[in-house]
Structures are given as C-alpha cells and as structure tokens.
Amino acid sequence: QKEVEQDPGPLSVPEGAIVSLNCTYSNSAFQYFMWYRQYSRKGPELLMYTYSSGNKEDGRFTAQVDKSSKYISLFIRDSQPSDSATYLCAMSGHTDKLIFGTGTRLQVFP
Amino acid sequence: ETGVTQTPRHLVMGMTNKKSLKCEQHLGHNAMYWYKQSAKKPLELMFVYSLEERVENNSVPSRFSPECPNSSHLFLHLHTLQPEDSALYLCASSQDRFDGLMNTEAFFGQGTRLTVV
Question: How far apart are CA B2 and CA B107, in angstroms?
Fold first, then answer.
C-alpha cells in the first residue's frame, strides 16, 4: 500500500465550479499536511499547509484534515481557468521526509 | 520566481554521455534537495544536503552523483544513464532540513527536463 494515495485525474470542471481534491494516507504519524500547485513546465509551489486536524482558509482555497479518517482535502471555490494545474498533496511526520502524492491534474474551462 | 534557479531547463543526452545539472538558491537556506518527478509517480526524494553535508542518499544508483560546494549551489552529475532515467529533475531548498518537529516550506526550482536516448 502506498503511503499517500491521490487520484491522478484529470479533473475537468467549468469556470465557477467548486473543486474538491483529496488524498488519503496510511501513516498515522503524519502531522504536517501541505498542498502544492504545479503549473505546466514549472516546479511545485506551496499553496497551503495545515498542522494536525482542522480547516484552514486562504481566499478561495480551503484545506481540511481529518486525521481520524486519514483523509485530507483541498477545496477551490469559484474556480478560474488560471487554477488549471496539477495539485500535489504532501505530508510529513516524525522524520525528515516529505511524502508526496502523485498529483491531480485539474483543468478549469471557460 | 521562487529564488531557486535550475539550469539547463532541457537536456537530451546519450547513454554514454556525462552531463551535470545545476541548482542555485538565493534565499539563504541551509538545506537543499534533489527530487525526481516521473509521469504518474510521486515526487521521489533523491538526495538531501544540510549545511553542505549530504545527510541522505535515498538508494539512488551511483550513476547519479551529487555535489554541494557551498550552501547556495547544488549539482547533480550524470553518467551512463538509462532511458528510464528520463524525467523532470527538481531542486528544492528550505530554511532548515525537515526534522518532523516543525513545518519547513520547500521552494522548488522549475526543473530540468532530462531525456536519455
């Protein structure tokens, strides 16, 4: 079983839709959870991070962590074509390793 | 621009060639990383340097040889690669090495797209 599972997509939605991106994980020691956004031909950039369980909101983006279910989500409200990218979840625990998901490719069409 | 610059952006090399990838960070960070990104696979950590000292070699074949001459520069020397080594190679840096006690944001470069023919 992979430590982090993420649906690769692609996920195609119309502009203005609410997007839900998800990852599941198996290691209960994970306590830092991150979402990276990667545009085509670019390196990943940190979008949001949360510590332990709970929600975090930043503009149109909301990150949720449910440690009891080992499930994290990123919601994008009022999605825009400029949100089209690959979204990578990443997490770390009591080690120095940052474990990434495979990434979900999102396309928002006008 | 994230402050991490990688060159070249694209590289095509034969299996008998020797080439090097270069990474430079202008952020004053103490830790630098090489990652490999292949299609439909998670980012794979290859090497970790902290204060210019290699602290992790993640079971990477010896045909990949890293070098960190100072805290701002990181190289990945390549020789006798295989076609399956074709991938996007990403360099990243962070203020300090991940230690599991605090979140440390990693800043990535744009990557070098490597094709081995």
Answer: 6
At B11, which amino acid appears?
L
Contacts of B56 (CB under 8 A, 6+ apart): A96, B45, B47, B48
Q: What is the pLDDT of residues A45-70, one digit of tens each?
A: 999 988 888 899 999 999 999 999 99
Place of tokens 């959870």: A33
Q: How many CB pairs under 8 A join A and B?
A: 60
Q: Are the C-beta atoms of residues B109 and B2 closer than 8 Å to each other?
A: yes
A residues 34-73 near B, CB within 8 Å?
A: 34, 36, 41-46, 49, 51
- Sign of the CA dihedral with B95 first, then A43, B2, and B78 last: positive
How many CA atoms are closer than 13 Å to the CA of B37, on its beta-carbon side? 26
Average pLDDT, chain A: 92
